[in-house]
């Protein structure tokens, strides 16, 4: 069974990054969750050839999956995955939503995802990533306030966009 551990320092040299996901915040302080049937996740995915930065990966994946533009993403940390074969990193970033377009199919699989805005604490529950996921959501909420300058109280109820 895979083991997941959350770290807030840089990804160590030699640990491959297989995924980059983002906690993307609306101006009202809620975070965007990608909904695919009953599964909730963050926008993001795998690096593609030619992409040089985590921000490049997140920008592309965000547009492909949830048809939105984001501000300059900030590095949040990484989750180390020990799967019994070869450990790897899943990077997490935080950014503000700059513009949201009408939903469109993901070019990778043709599915159109629903987009749900929720308070950050609710994101940790919906992602269902256990202790590591709750730590990530908490770090993202703190970064949204400190780095992005977003509100942290009196947040609107969850809603689809």
Describe the structure.
This protein is globular. Helix 2 (120-127) runs antiparallel to helix 3. The strands form two sheets. Strands 1, 2, 5, 6, 7 and 8 form a six-stranded mixed sheet that branches. A four-stranded antiparallel sheet has the order 4-3-9-10. The relative contact order is 0.25. The protein is built from three helices and ten strands. The chain is α+β, with helices and mostly antiparallel strands and 161 residues long. It has helices at residues 54-66, 120-127, 130-146, and strands at residues 3-7, 17-25, 31-36, 39-41, 44-45, 68-70, 74-82, 88-100, 114-118, 159-160.
Counting helices, strands and paired strands, the structural category is alpha+beta
Q: H/E element string?
A: EEEEEHEEEEHHE
Radius of gyration: 15 Å
Instruction: Report how far the terminal alpha carbons are from each other.
Output: 36 Å
* Structure annotation, total helices: 3
Specify the helix fraction band. 10-25%
Q: For this entry, what is the oligomeric state of its chains?
A: single chain
What is the overall shape? globular
Number of strands: 10
Poorly predicted regions are: none
- Provide the β-strand percentage band: 35-45%
The main β sheet shows up as:
6 strands, mixed
In round numbers, the mean pLDDT is 93
